[in-house]
Amino acid sequence: MSKEKNKKSRNNWGMQFLISVLGTAIGVGLTFAVNNRMENRNKEQAQRLTAMMVIHDIDETIDQVKKMKEYMESGYDITMYVMEHLDQMDSVPDDTIYKAVEYLLHRDRDFRFDVSKEKIFHSSPDTWQNLGSMKFIDNVQSFYFDRESFQESMNKSDIWREPVPMNEYERVQVPNDALLTVDQYVKQYNTLIREFLKAKLDDKQVQHYITYSAWRMTQLNEIINEWTYKNNENKFLMSITDEELEEYVNSISQNGIALTEKSLTGTWFNSSTDDYETEYEFSKDHVYTMRNTSAMTVNLPFYYGKLKFIITEKGTWGLEGDSLTQTIDLASIDVEIDVSNIALTPEKQDMLNQWTEEYKAEVLSYLLEEAKNNSPKAWHACLDASHDKMELQGKNDDEKGEMVPVTVYLKRRK
Predict the structure, then answer these.
(1) What is the chain's alpha carbon radius of gyration, rounded to the nearest angstrom?
(2) Each residue of 218-276: pLDDT tens digit?
(3) Rounded CA gap, 152 and 115, in Å?
(4) Model pLDDT, residue 123
(5) Residue range(s) in the chain whose domain bears CATH number 2.40.128
(6) pTM to 2 decimal places
(7) CATH node for 258-412
(8) Cα 290–260–291 angle (5° rounding)?
(9) Could you tell me which residues come within 8 angstroms of residue 183 by beta carbon, excluding any fewer than 6 positions away?
(10) How far is Cα 339 from Cα 307, in angstroms, rounded to an integer?
């Protein structure tokens, strides 16, 4: 019996050892399998994020070119209208004249696309070489090459480059007589700018630029169509749906911590330079006060120095989910113009006072009209991890009356 017990004991020990070895092997195998699966999933996720980043970059570039085309079409139509009324230039509205000059005017800087996403794409060969579709990679490489070529052409080719140098236009802004009143200066400027535009429209280089407008529109249409086709193909190749792309865009533009009434209460400000600051004060009783302070340097024959503008508005605020609403009290809107830092001769004081009152009334009228169109105002609002920085995303009317995205960043005033 003793021998049989020893034999069974050895058998049990051997079985336990075998089970232990098998368990360890299975455990190690499962660990490797799980880790491998997680690694593949993370790699696949990183690849899809890279693909969506590039696809979104192409979409944004296409939108930029579309806006460029709309601007050029509008400028061309306005310029053609002026050319048809050369003999009645005095009857052409001032803003039409300004826009025609704007269409022909070349700034002292080159046009540049944002290449930050392109640099990320090219900076990680291991990521983009393993995206799984060589056709997608070829499309992206081709797009970035085309975009750079288009940018270079815009900055160097006479067909794309606006023909009127900025320094020539700036000379028109200098008055002939330093003793002019503001009204006299504006009248003289409107006369000079018409003469300037009329002379430029007779210039061969300007006529060459205008003549090739239809060619530019055709090129822009072809670029938009080609890039749109490629990006639709990119979305198909990478199996990226519109919903996925929308989620990606939201994820990069709506990060942060939700606002609460307690975290919002207090004073917030946005100050880009010493001459500009916007301050919001949100009180517990759901009343807010906005104060915008800005300074503008002027150097005219009549006076020089800094004009300081102070715009104030009040109203009520509310929170609903991640939205902050502001309802403006139109009667609270006020404009102040501080001229204490303006240097001028005593005989010009009355002229400055008159101009200040007229300009103040003009600004106030504009603000009231804008407030009527944009109140109540709704913002997507969130805080950063410190709770001392706030992001507000909303929409405002642009010059054409269209709603365009607006993002504001505020810091808590301590």
Answers:
(1) 32
(2) 999 999 999 999 999 999 988 888 888 888 877 766 567 888 999 999 999 998 777 88
(3) 14
(4) 78
(5) 258-412
(6) 0.65
(7) 2.40.128
(8) 5
(9) none
(10) 5
Length of the chain: 414
Cα separation of the two ends of the chain: 88
State the virtual CA torsion across 80, 82, 86, 90 in degrees, nearest 10. 170
Q: What angle do CA 149, 152, 155 make, to 5 degrees?
A: 150
Query: 55-65: per-residue pLDDT in tens?
Result: 999 999 999 99
- Indicate the SS3 state at residue 124: coil
Contacts with 293 (C-beta within 8 Å, 6 or more apart), sequence order: 276, 277, 278, 279, 308, 309, 310, 311
Report d(CA 57, CA 135) in Å as an integer.
18
Cis peptide before 301 (omega within 30 of 0): no
Tokens of 123: 């900076």
Kindly state the tokens that stand for 197.
Answer: 């535009």
C-beta separation of 302 from 349 below 8 A: no
Of 45, 22, 313, 351, the C-alpha closest to 179 is 351
Q: Cα separation of 83 and 362, whole Å?
A: 31
In this structure, is the dihedral angle defined by the CA atoms of residues 142, 145, 148 and 150, taken in order, positive or negative?
A: negative
Q: Using alpha carbons, select from 49, 329, 351 the residue that is nearest to residue 185.
A: 351
pLDDT digits (tens, 9 = 90+) for 2-22: 555 555 555 565 556 555 655
